[in-house]
C-alpha cells in the first residue's frame, strides 16, 4: 500500500499513515538488566553439570535446593485447613496480629517503646515495600530530601529513595577493600558531614553485601554522632535471626538506638528468616518519642499505602503471625533459623580453609569474620569474569557471593576455581570443570 501511495504522489497521506503505524511506545528506551536476576537466568540456561550459582540471596540446603522451613509447611497446612479463614481484604495497614508480632520481634517483648504505646507497625510488601513507604513518608510528611547509604550497599536503596523524590542521595564510606574490613573511621567522617535531619540508612545486622557489621562499641559511637548531628536512623532489617541464629542478638543495634531515645524507622523483611521469598511479608516499625503522635503518623502511612497498593497480601503475614504467636511453633522456627545460620558458618570456614590450604594469594580470614547471607570476597571484576566464563560459577561483578550457594559438594571446586582465577592459572590451564578436580 505504501508503494502505491508513493507512486500516486500522495506524500502527505503516506506520512500520516506511517506515523499512525508507529507505536506510542516506540521511543521508550530499554532499561539495563538487573544483575542478580540476569545472572540467575544465565545460570538456569547453562547446561554445564558443574555450574554453581553464588549470586541469588536465597537459602539453599547442602543439596543445593530451596528449603521450605518445616514449621512454615506445617503452618500452611493448618491455615489451609481452617474453615474460618477467608479471602476478604485485610485492613490497609495489614494484619494486626502480624504487625504487633513483627514490631515486638525487632524491639523486644519488654521494649519500653511498646509498653508506652509509642511504637507500632504497618504491614508492607516485604522489606522493599517498607523502605519505599518509609521514604515516601519522610519526603512528603517530614520534608526530608537528604539520604545517606553505605558504600557499598544493596543497590535498591538508591533507586527507592530517588524514586521517592529525595534530591540529595549520598553514600558514606563503609568497606576498606585493601584491609577487607569495616572502614569505621571514614564512615564516621562522612556522617559527621551530613546535614541535620539527614536520613541515614543502617543495616541492622548482616550488612549486605559485605557481611561486616559494626561492633557494639562502634554502634555506640555511631549513636553518639547521630544524636549530636540530629540525624534520622532508618534501619534495614532483612536478616534478623537468619544472621546469627539469635533474633535478639541480631536486633541489638535497633534496640540500642531505641534505648538511647531515638525516633526511628525499622524496615523488616521475612523473606530470609522465614524462607517466604515470594510471599512479600514485611513490616515498617515506627518508634516515636511519645504516643501523642501515633494517630497522625498512622493515618498518613495509611493514606500512602492506600494510594500505592490499597492493602497488603494476607498469606505470608498469616504464616508469620501464627508462628510468632504460637510458642511451640516459635520454638520450631528458632531451630530452623539456627540450622540455616549454622550451615552458612560451616561453609564460611570450609571456603576459607580450602583457600588457605591451596596457598591462594591474599588473606581470607574476612570470610569467617563476616556474617549472614553474603561474603564480600575481595575478588575483582576480572576474577569474576574468569569464574563465570571458564568455571560456570555465577557471582556479582563486585565479588559478592551468596554463602548459601556453597555446599559440601561444590566448595572445593569453587575454592580451586577462585585460586586459578587469582593466580592466572584459569587462563591457560585445563578447566577444572572438565573433571571437577
TrEMBL record:
Enzyme class: transferase
UniProt cross-references to Pfam families, sorted A to Z: Aminotran_1_2
GO MF assignments: L-aspartate:2-oxoglutarate aminotransferase activity; L-cysteine transaminase activity; pyridoxal phosphate binding
UniProt domain Aminotransferase class I/classII large: residue ranges: 50-418
Cofactor: pyridoxal 5'-phosphate
EC number: 2.6.1.1, 2.6.1.3
GO cellular component: cytosol
Places the protein is found: Cytoplasm
Reactions this protein catalyses: (2S)-2-aminobutanoate + 2-oxoglutarate = 2-oxobutanoate + L-glutamate; L-aspartate + 2-oxoglutarate = oxaloacetate + L-glutamate; L-cysteine + 2-oxoglutarate = 2-oxo-3-sulfanylpropanoate + L-glutamate; 3-sulfino-L-alanine + 2-oxoglutarate = 3-sulfinopyruvate + L-glutamate
Predominant localisation class: cytoplasm
One biological process term in Gene Ontology: glutamate biosynthetic process
Keyword entries, A-Z: Aminotransferase, Cytoplasm, Pyridoxal phosphate, Transferase
Subunit structure: Homodimer.
Similarity comment text for this entry: Belongs to the class-I pyridoxal-phosphate-dependent aminotransferase family.
NCBIfam families attached to this UniProt entry: PRK09257.1 (NF006719)
Name of this chain's protein: Aspartate aminotransferase, cytoplasmic
Lineage: Eukaryota, Metazoa, Ecdysozoa, Arthropoda, Hexapoda
Amino acid at each position: 500500500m505504501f508503494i502505491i501511495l508513493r507512486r500516486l504522489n500522495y506524500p502527505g497521506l503516506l506520512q500520516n499513515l506511517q506515523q499512525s503505524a508507529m507505536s506510542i511506545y516506540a521511543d521508550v528506551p530499554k532499561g539495563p538488566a538487573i544483575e542478580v536476576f540476569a545472572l540467575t537466568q544465565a545460570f538456569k540456561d547453562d547446561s554445564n553439570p558443574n555450574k554453581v550459582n553464588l549470586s541469588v540471596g536465597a537459602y539453599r540446603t547442602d543439596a543445593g535446593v530451596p528449603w521450605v522451613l518445616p514449621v512454615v509447611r506445617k503452618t500452611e497446612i493448618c491455615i489451609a485447613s481452617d474453615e474460618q479463614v477467608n479471602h476478604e481484604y485485610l485492613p490497609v495497614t495489614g494484619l494486626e496480629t502480624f504487625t504487633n508480632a513483627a514490631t515486638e520481634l525487632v524491639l523486644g517483648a519488654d521494649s519500653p517503646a511498646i509498653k508506652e504505646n509509642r511504637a507500632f507497625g504497618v504491614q508492607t510488601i516485604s522489606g522493599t515495600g517498607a523502605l519505599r513507604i518509609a521514604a515516601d513518608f519522610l519526603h512528603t510528611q517530614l520534608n526530608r530530601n537528604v539520604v545517606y547509604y553505605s558504600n557499598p550497599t544493596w543497590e535498591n536503596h538508591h533507586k527507592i529513595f530517588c524514586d521517592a523524590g529525595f534530591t540529595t542521595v549520598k553514600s558514606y564510606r563503609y568497606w576498606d577493600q585493601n584491609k577487607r574490613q569495616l572502614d569505621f573511621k571514614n564512615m564516621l567522617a562522612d556522617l559527621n558531614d551530613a546535614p541535620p535531619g539527614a536520613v541515614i540508612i543502617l543495616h541492622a545486622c548482616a550488612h549486605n553485601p559485605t557481611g561486616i557489621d559494626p561492633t557494639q562499641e562502634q554502634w555506640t559511637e555511631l549513636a553518639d554522632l547521630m544524636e549530636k548531628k540530629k540525624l534520622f536512623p532508618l534501619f534495614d532489617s532483612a536478616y534478623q535471626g537468619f544472621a546469627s541464629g539469635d533474633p535478639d542478638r541480631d536486633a541489638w543495634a535497633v534496640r540500642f538506638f531505641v534505648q538511647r531515645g531515638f525516633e526511628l524507622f525499622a524496615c523488616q523483611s521475612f523473606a530470609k528468616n522465614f524462607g517466604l521469598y515470594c510471599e512479600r511479608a514485611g513490616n515498617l516499625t515506627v518508634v516515636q518519642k511519645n504516643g501523642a503522635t501515633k494517630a497522625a503518623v498512622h493515618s498518613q502511612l495509611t493514606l500512602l499505602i492506600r494510594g500505592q497498593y490499597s492493602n497488603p497480601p494476607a498469606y505470608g503475614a498469616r504464616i508469620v503471625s501464627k508462628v510468632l504467636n504460637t510458642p511451640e511453633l516459635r520454638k520450631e522456627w528458632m531451630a530452623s533459623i539456627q540450622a540455616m545460620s549454622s550451615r552458612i558458618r560451616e561453609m564460611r570456614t570450609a571456603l576459607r580453609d580450602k583457600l588457605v590450604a591451596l596457598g591462594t594469594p591474599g588473606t581470607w580470614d574476612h570470610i569467617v569474620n563476616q556474617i549472614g547471607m553474603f561474603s564480600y570476597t575481595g575478588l575483582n571484576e576480572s576474577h569474576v569474569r574468569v569464574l563465570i566464563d571458564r568455571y560456570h560459577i555465577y557471582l556479582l561483578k563486585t565479588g559478592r557471593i551468596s554463602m548459601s550457594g556453597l555446599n559440601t559438594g561444590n566448595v572445593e571446586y569453587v575454592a580451586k576455581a577462585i585460586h586459578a582465577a587469582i593466580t592466572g592459572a584459569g587462563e591457560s590451564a585445563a578447566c577444572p570443570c572438565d573433571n571437577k578436580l
